[in-house]
Structures are given as C-alpha cells and as structure tokens.
Amino acid sequence: MKCFFALRLQESLRNRLEQLSLRMQEWDLPARWVHPHDVHITLAYLGECAEDEMGALLYNVDMFLSSQQCPQLSIPKLGAFAGKKWPRVIYAAVEDQEHFCADLHRDLAEACDIQVESDYAPHITLCRPQGRGIDRSWEELLAAFVQFEAPVLDVADIVLYQSRTDLQPHYYEIKSWSFLKGQPNKLCI
C-alpha cells in the first residue's frame, strides 16, 4: 500500500477550498480535481509500505508526532508548479514562517529512512492540469483567483494516510496524532 504523512485540514477549510475549486472548475479547463475529503498538506511521502512493516514504522514516529505543538501557517496565494506545456499542479501556497512543515518533513524522513526532499515546499494541491483550455489558459485562471480570501481556519491533526486510487475519496486514515493543547493551530488564508 502507498502511504504518506500529512496535515489534515479542518472541515471548514476543506469546504472553503471546495467552493474555490468549484468556481475554478467552471472555467472548464481539463484537470483532475482533488476530492474535497482528500485535500491536505503532505509532510512526507513514504511510497509502498508493507502491512507487516507498519508496526515498526508507527513505533518510530509515534513519540515525536504525539508531542507536536500546533503550527502557525497561512495561505498567501495560489500558485502552480511548472510543466513542459502547462502546469503540473495548481495549489494553495502554504506560508510557514516557523518552518514547522519543513522540520517535520525532515524528522519523518529520518525516522522512516526515506530521502529528505531538498525542494520540499508545503502546499495544498487543488488540481492536476491535463491540458490547455480552448478559450482560457491556466495562467488566466490563476490571475483571476489571485485575490482568494478566507477567514482564519484551523489545522486538524497529523495523519498517516493510505492512498487508494481505486476508490473516491482516495486517501484513508491509518492513524492520526493530535496536537498538544494550549497552542493555537490556525491556518490563515
């Protein structure tokens, strides 16, 4: 099974991003849109994990994931990862001034014996473009939604997900870790 660690977003944020995605889908640009329940911030992608290895994996990460303070994050803009002909990914950028996501990415990579991504950038994937539109382009779409605004919203928890491409939504929780109490965990948009 393919697995990854992520920050799960509160339902209110997922709903807000779903409304944004629906408005963007009205542009009728070819894309694979992320299911609203699958929206997250990836911390570390593990790839294939054997079920018999899951116990040792959870043992390695359980203690430090259980002791995480809530992150202070914001979403300042939408963006795109470049592709050859059109963007590979349209995303909501995540600003992380305290480097919470990058630090946790590194710690998870070390604990799980996977490669640390030198270009790791926390983000929330909205869609994966599949081509150029007939009447409009992805660049025009991003320009039209550059002023996306929303109230301050909460991050829910840290989750180990299993990816299931044969079902919708695609991601299923294996285990989750709550943040320590007493710290705000706001995700600002």
Describe the SSE topology.
Elements: E1 2-9, H1 11-25, E2 31-33, E3 40-48, H2 54-65, E4 73-74, E5 78-81, E6 89-93, H3 100-112, E7 123-129, H4 138-144, E8 153-163, E9 171-177, E10 186-188
Parallel strand pairs: 4-10
Antiparallel strand pairs: 1-3, 1-8, 2-7, 5-6, 6-7, 8-9, 8-10
What does the model show?
25% of the residues lie in helices and 31% in strands. It is of the alpha+beta class. The protein has one domain: Alpha-Beta Complex (Cyclic Phosphodiesterase, Chain: A), CATH 3.90.1140. Strands 1, 3, 4, 8, 9 and 10 form a six-stranded mixed sheet that branches. Strands 2-7-6-5 form a four-stranded antiparallel sheet, with helices on one face. Strand 8 and strand 9 form a beta hairpin. The model has no long low-confidence stretch (mean pLDDT 88).
Give a brief outline of the structure.
The protein is α+β, with helices and mostly antiparallel strands and about 190 residues long.
The CATH class name reads Alpha Beta
Q: What is the global morphology? A: globular
Give the uncertain stretches in residue-range form. Answer: none
Number of structural domains: 1
SSE string, helices as H and strands as E: EHEEHEEEHEHEEE
Could you say what the CATH architecture is?
A: Alpha-Beta Complex
Strand content: 25-35%
Structural class: alpha+beta
What's the overall average pLDDT, rounded? 88
User: The CATH topology, please?
Assistant: Cyclic Phosphodiesterase, Chain: A
